[in-house]
Design brief:
11% of the residues lie in helices and 29% in strands. The chain is mainly beta. The protein has a domain at 13-102: MurE/MurF, N-terminal domain (Udp-n-acetylmuramoylalanyl-d-glutamate--2,6- Diaminopimelate Ligase, Chain: A, domain 1), CATH 3.40.1390. Strands 8-11-14-17-20-25-28-31-34-37-39-40 form a 12-stranded mixed sheet. A 10-stranded parallel sheet has the order 9-12-15-18-21-26-29-32-35-38, with no helix packed on it. Strand 5 (48-52), helix 2 and strand 6 (68-71) form a beta-alpha-beta unit.
Length: 340
Amino acid sequence: MADPRFYPEAQPISIADIAELARGEKARGCSSLMARFIGAPDAMAEGGLCFIATKDAAETVPDQKGVICLVAPELADKLPSSVAIVVTPDPKRAFGLVMRKMYPEPAPIQSQQISPLAHIADDAVIADDVRVDGGAFIDARAELGKGVWIKSGVKIGAGCVIGDGTVIDSNASIDYAIIGQSCQIGAGVVIGGCGFGVGRDGGNILLPHLGKVIIGNRTTIGGNSCIDRGFIDDTVIGDHVMIDNLVHIAHNAKIGNGNVICGQVGIAGSTVIGDQNIFGAQAGVADHVTIGSGNVFAARAGVTKSVGDGQVMAGFPAVPALEFRREVATLRRLAMPRKK
């Protein structure tokens, strides 16, 4: 159950409405039954809603009337008979949709709220319905669109553009950047820092960078991630991209729409990535590599060569996952002690 110290009270929703939102089928339970809170399967009580995606989770649900479970079809018969169920192919996704209904996003900012402890340059362009918290710094010629929320300690550099409805969490630093609408920028994020362009002149020198960062709409960037501005060209990230915490995207990278990039991934400079790829935790992509669309890269995959579309890759250097598994199995057999 969500802690009331941090979250508002849930808005009740009927099982019939849950089934409609989940695009599923109400297989059991009275249509007027209401979900009043959400929780883990083993913490269910009357009025609770959970989702079941594994057999182990199904076995933890108590035999309690008034409980509603979103469940995959093959697991529906594993739940106690007293529990109401909505059958849906993807219970986790459906659960997320219902959560958004029960815990709606805060209403858009309706009036300007500027903390007296914020510093805003005289020629910054600030929409009427913007919130800027104490300790934030908005530099010259920066533009903040409607409904933008700049939290404490954020620095928005000169000339940056922040699109409507974007929220930038505490202590983020934004320079040389154009950010789209309804983005979520996590705490401690650095966008637009100088890329790692190294030259030699009797020693190592850091090359000047003249590009910027362009981020599309509804993109999420997790805490303490870094996105470098381009060297001469721009670093570009598309729409609906989900970037986890502690991700590094280097200068000149081009990342398409709908990609999912998990924690501690590193994407080197001048990489071109298509749409709808998934990068597992700690995966790495070498510089100047081109990746197509619809690929999946397993955790710790090391991508050193260009990849087409629709592949599942693993290992270092990354190869098709089935090939990687064969390699691992072969090495294990070779490593086994020989019988005398």
